[in-house]
From TrEMBL, chain B:
The keyword Signal applies. It comes from Henriciella mobilis. Keywords: Lipoprotein, Signal. This is Outer membrane lipoprotein-sorting protein. Residues 1-21 form the signal peptide. Residues 79-258 form the Uncharacterized protein TP-0789 domain. The keyword Signal applies. Pfam families: LolA_like.
Amino acid sequence: MLWLSKAAAKRRKGFFVFSLAFAFILTTLALAPSVMPGALPFLKPLTIDTDPENMLPADATVRVRNGELKTVFDIYDFVVVGVLNETHPQGVFNAKDLANVKTLTDYAKTLSYEQRAGTFANVIASDIIAPSTVDNIETESLGAVSFTWLMKTAPSTDQEAALIRDRMLKIPMYKGTMISDDGAALALYYPLSEKSISHAVAQDLQELIDTFENTGAVYHITGLPVAEDRFGSEMFFQMAVSAPLAMLFVFGLLWLFFGHVRIILISLLAAMASVICTMALLVLSGQTIHIMSSMIPIFIIPIAVLDDIHILSDFYDKYTPERDRLEIVNEVMADLWRPMWYTTLTTAVGFASLMLTPIPPVQVFGLFVAIGVFVAWFFTVTLLPAYFMSLPDKALADFGALQTSERAIRDQSWLGRFLRTAGPFAGHRAKSIIVLSLALVVWAGIGIVNISVNDNPIKWFETSDQIRVADRIINEEFAGSYMAYLHLSSDSAVNDEPFKAPETLRYIAKMSADLEAESNVIGKVSGLYDIVSTVYRELYNDPAAYRIPDTRPAIAQTLLMYENSHRPDDIWTFVTPDFQDAVLWFQLKSGDNTDMAQVEKLVGDYLNRNPPPRTLASEWFGLTYINLVWQDEMVTGMLKAFLGSFIVVLILTSLLFRSLSWGIMAMIPLALTVATIYGAVGWAGMDYDMPTAVLSSLSLGLAVDYAIHFLARTREIFRRQQAWEPTLREMFEEPSRAISRNVIVVGVGFLPLLAANLVPYQTVGILISSILILAGAASLILLPALISVFQKPLFHRERITE
Amino acid sequence: MNKAALVFLIIVSAFGPPAHAQNTDANDIARQAEKTAFYQGEDGRARVSMQIIDKQGRTRSRDITILRKDEINDNSESGDQRFFVYFRAPSDVRDTVFLVWKHPQADDDRWLYLPALDLVRRIAAGDERSSFVGSDFFYEDVSGRSAEEDTHVVQDTTETYYILKSTPKDPNRVEFAYYISYIHKESYLPVQVEYYQSDHSKYREYTAEAVETIQGFPTVTRATMKDLADGGRTTLTYSDIHYDIDLSDDIFTERYLRNPPRQFFGEN
């Protein structure tokens, strides 16, 4: 492969033109469909995908069932608007605020957005839950049941507003859902025909809200779709600002180590070219930009820079104006091409292993980072030599270790002095270091056992973000904004309308009440029994009649009464018209997977402990549940991917060193790093979510990198020195300096990600830095310790037999 | 116009020569249309099969018998009417009765008798545009909206139809901004009625799909109401229609709710 670098160094102009043209053509093709739609019909425009459902393939059973059951029961995802007014004694139930709420709802009914040519997505007006769109059900006078619009027109006085409040509080379907239990706050539910419009709906609603006269009322817009959708717009910002910022930081650190802006500029350009080409390929392949793929640049930058630093370091050490430049460059590349090719392979394998996970966005991420790793390798081994060749001598004046004669022998920088003093310590205290490492593994093991696998798209935002604030307030005041649906069906083949049977409805009503009492997460469970009991109560005008009637005809006729209201179809959001299938709406106060898992278990246990009057099959659906499913698949998938790639990388390192024991040695710092990182995640109580999960692949790629470089150099030096002690000392000169520089540049370079306002990016930033520092430290401390102890068998091939 | 209307056209054109005089008074057209659609004969009965079909194509069926009687005061009709709507099927609502005393100038009285609970309850809905027993028809579509509640304008006159645009006098009691009706010139039967929102989008559509002349009265025998917003529709198919069957007033009282006057229900 060396011929490539040699060719590049010789025909530098050709390679520059080729690289530029390649990057330019890819970018143009990728952007063309977005800039000029339709000009190139075979290309797809850049599409942002924030739908967490896409964490699972479109044909995943749980997704297919979710889609089917949502259609069967006419269930939509919705935007929730919480309205509070702490300055008015009646809360939002005053004439002015209710008028605004009515205006807002009337406006929401009209919202419609063109999606693709000719197709529209809109707010489903007939299913809106707001005071002006639902019926008040009450006994009007003796013997009359009234189904009047709860708030046909806005009240003209605060007394009238209070009357509306009192009516709402009396209707179990509304209490806790639309009106807070204390009767002060309102929640409005705007269902969407497609959840992709939720961000637009939220923005349009906010615009109208901003025009309202200040009454002291506060409007909180939330709901899972809003959070997901807003994440999409934030992703652009992250890709356009955070990733370049990280790159600048890396550049600053390179400058600090090597001086000479002109020389290190090329590594910045090579990294940028790698990122641009990879992203262009991603778009060209028709893939959407998902939360995972938006992080591809952030992963490619350190990998691209890593090889650059090795070349720069070596060139820095070897350069002297006295020798022929081409000779030096070729020598540098000859030194490095083998470890670079292998580290490229191992890194690519680490990421490609993600294709073993069952989660499509993670597969795409793994594949394209792997591609990016090769692209970065290509640009590094061609552009750097070509660039070095085209620099004028003037630009290289006083560059390189040999030009500062003293440094040539002993690097006097703080890093050099530190490594020289501290380094051999690792070889001398080998046993204590190994014991300490084992202790660390045990500590990490305990942490890993306690790791909590959890994700919640709302938590992708910072605690202070308005979405998080709205989410918190709405879930404090109301029954919950996270929906999960429990589909119940009778497995009997004959249609005997099980969900019109009093015993079944009673069982479900009791189950709901018991579950609400048992769990803090379940805010409220709604079902057909709510409608039946409420209407039955009003038929008798007696609070004690809030129950399920005694016979099937009684239930059927109670429902027939309700069917004369303005919203008879609400029945069919709870039961199918043949009464064979029913659904329970669970309002959860939290969207955490762990909470959903707890609810799933609780309900399963309940059904087992208290068998229903007839056998009922149960099945969950809804976004909150889908999140749980893909999380579960991710954990097992990641483990499989990690183990698979661990073995492949072990084979690669064993091949590289032509020795299984050296191969295993190369894997040890990586194993320790991964264990420690996830142990720390467990101990810190951080959630093991998707970004955290994919970082194991990054560790695989980077930690092995350091170990390969360290071990390769160690063997090489030992062959020359024929003794461990001088080898150890020499290792802590140039080789460990290169590794340390790498650790610092890339590790610190990613700290700007902490400034991002989306949590997954922060997590990635802090974890990449920790992984690099740990992997570097493990390579520099644990490897010499292990070699000290096992030097006899390890060096048997290097030793020249007397 | 759709196919159903075309069928109607052919049926109706068989009745005789085209109208010799053009009616230009919108209010008069609306009043005559109301009379033709809801006041034929002095009383009558019909067996109605109701098919409620939701957007998923799931069908719920109801089988009912409707008795109707117009009120006569001093030998003239006041417009007041009484309806006795008896449920035959499905079996769990059998014997349920929906009783109506319609008052064109005031709120109608509606009662529901629930045999399983042996309970009579008045339904108060604040307006007359709540669902008629769960169908896509509103209560008012079945009982008849008074021509006096809207302002009518002749929007167009074709060879066959008067096309009326009707705007509510009290917009707070209805959900539509206006409706357009196609009224057959010859028979004065409304063949199609389209309901619009204020943004001029059509969201409901009534179509008379079959018409027969029974005892000399042009009578709609099949009609469909489409809810264009939610994709559902309801079809009413009338059979065993008879006019002037001498119903007595007391049938339309609470006494008969528990003992339906089966002798007037016709064939089984």
